[in-house]
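ok so i was messing around last nite and threw this chain in just to see what happens. nothing serious, just curious
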Amino acid sequence: QGIGQPSVYHAVVVIFLEFFAWGLLTTPMLTVLHETFPHHTFLMNGLIQGVKGFLSFLSAPLIGALSDAWGRKSFLLLTVFFTCVPIPLMRISPWWYFAMISVSGIFSVTFSVIFAYVADVTQEHERTTAYGLVSATFAASLVTSPAIGAYLSASYGDSLVVLVATLVAVVDICFILIAVPESLPAKIRPASWGSSISWEQADPFASLKKVRKDPMVLPICITVLLSYLPEAGQYSSFFLYLRQIIGFGSASIAAFIAVVGILSIVTQTVFLSILMRSIGNKNTVLLGLGFQIFQLAWYGFGSQPW
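result:
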């Protein structure tokens, strides 16, 4: 089932729609977060994102193993659905909204399933470019959606923004149901449900033990951990930081996100492949980490909107 042969473009559309829906909510979410927790805004934001991230860490190996056994499409549907479930609750009940965001971490691993989908439909030498395209699409979804959300919020109120975001999420789910073909051939899946799933595959700590024993993978994982740790902290509180500390308004935040998104698209689609061909994979990683250090230091020490 689905439209055409499975391809990277199916994955790109799924990612774009999901994060476009959430991008629309950038301004309303900051407002609701501050109104709900006026005295502990940063603390509660950290707790909500922390619980969500920890649950994602626990569930990601199991969902990955299950998608290996039962196919990608059903788990794309599952992850997108539960990731987007909190959206309409923003105007119904802020407390339930934030509670559902935390709990949705169990299934908020769309990127893991998307990357597995991309791996199914590409050759090994094509995957770096394909993964870059997926990452660029994530950035593209944030180029316009916060600005659109801020405009709709200022002109028509937050309720319309939430409605539009909900409709985009529904379109994403319908796209998966109707248009996305299964990428994992049925012949390589087990005949009975759960027959190839072991506790070791579902245990996130078992994966860490395997990584520790591999002298090649271990340094890569440590590099990724040390890179993603500050990046995740920045991403979870960045918009709130811009508004509460730096003094950005809704339009300024939307414009800032758009510029960052455009630069990310150009980097992922143009400069990444050029750098990897010219200076190699390792030096490209080192260059990226150097820019990351500069970026984080600039954000940390900066106190003016410019």
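not much to say yet. Residues 8-184+201-301 form a domain with the Growth Hormone; Chain: A; fold (CATH 1.20.1250.20).
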